[in-house]
Design goal:
The chain is mainly beta. The protein is 12% helix and 57% strand.
Length: 65
């Protein structure tokens, strides 16, 4: 975790299984903070294409990465 009074960045690993496919990606969450409250969150995926492919309902259920 990296943090200042106005911003915090957290690295996390997301894993999931769905329709025979698996997901395992690293994500950075960027929190913007004003007056002690989170006002904005931006998510940065290490592999955006893999994330989109995993959640796409048109992907063949038999394939996995």
């Amino acid at each position: 975790m990296l943090s200042t009074p106005e911003r915090t960045v957290v690295l996390q690993r997301e894993t999931a299984a769905r329709n025979g496919n698996s997901l395992d990606v690293v994500v950075a969450l960027d929190f913007e903070i004003h007056h002690g409250k989170i006002t904005e969150v931006t998510v940065y995926h290490a592999d955006t294409y893999l994330f989109d492919e995993f959640w796409n309902d048109e992907v063949d259920a038999g394939s996995s990465r």
